[in-house]
Amino acid sequence: MTVADTARDVVAALLTEQGQENPYPHYARLREIAPVYYSEAFGNWLVTRHDDCESVLVSPHIGKADAKWADTAIPNWRDRPTSRYLFASMLRLNAPDHTRVRGLVNHVFSERHVASLRPTIESIVDRVLAGLADAGRDGSAVDFQEVVSYPMTVSIMGHMVGAAEADHEKFRHWTGRIARILDPDMTPADLVAADTATVEIQDYFAHLIKARTEQPRDDIASMLIAVRAQDGDRLTLDEMQATLSLLFLAGLDTSALTVGTGVAALLDHPDQLAVLRAEPDLTTVTDEVIRWDTAAQVAHRRVLRDTEIGGVPLPEGATISVVLGSANRDPARFEDADTFDIARVRPRTLGFGAGPHFCIGSAVSRLEGSVVFPRLAQRFPRLAKAGKPVRRDTLAIRGYHHLPVSIT
Predict the structure, then answer these.
(1) How many domains does the chain have?
(2) Among residues 108, 102, 359, which one has the least CA distance to residue 224?
(3) What does DSSP assign to residue 146?
(4) Among 12, 340, 344, 372, which is most buried by a count of CB atoms within 10 Å?
């Protein structure tokens, strides 16, 4: 067989149910035989080595498929609220628009502001862990995602943006409907539901921005209104709505999945759980969870000008799947890459991306993990899996829909 034939078979195996359950052996094979490979199944280039992935993410010749691209590639995309939201958010902007918006929003995620969130996050974590104790005190199985991960992350994000606590469950409902567009079995009805949720969440933030304009508080909505560049530039109403929505949609799901993945990994590696109990102040846990099994497995990019990655010429207009999950297990970058080691002296993973689109909420995610993982380990010494976890049925976003655990 040729290299191309072998790579095609590896990708086919990757897309099976078994391949999605454990994609890492298939990633390793692609790194070995075809690290920059055009896949007919994906319809784009797959990049799997760490250094090549990083090169794609930081290259000035490679960016996002933005609204200009959508105007030529996606007929009538402006008719759909979800599409309009996605292409208006930082997620799909290129320079100079992205540089401007990101520069303004960065003020909100200062080191000082993120550090100030610790007492609130600790309080929220203690509350959801008390809920876990109540739900599992009789020895029955408890869905960790339902009782801890999602309630925790939606409460943290709701507090940060300024949403009323009574409205937090609305956001979980809205983000769940919008996230469905990423799943392979999405139906036309799911797309309609996502559009409805997008309209509702945008309306909510329009009212929130109006309220905070009149009465500012210590939250992100108020901060975005107040942020002004030295030249007097500030975010428009649409940009603020898109930013607040993006923080919820991108931050809630991936954070909840990361917490669930971390708990599952710790339970599967009792030696590491023992390390965490002995060293609760360990600061490398979240980074290792993300390196080991990141929620964001794939980042999509588009070639803006002819360029070369890993010695392979990529023409303008080509699309790329940057396989972050593979990059984070690359032995050329990480010693004992397939070993879960929460005390690992990192080089930095690509789980939060790199370059201009580096995850703006990475510091918040690390802070959440530094609170929830050691507190969980200390409070529940008999925590164990209580059934087979159920993963999301998608390759790009990886994590558990359901994670049954017991605490006694």
Answers:
(1) 1
(2) 108
(3) I
(4) 372
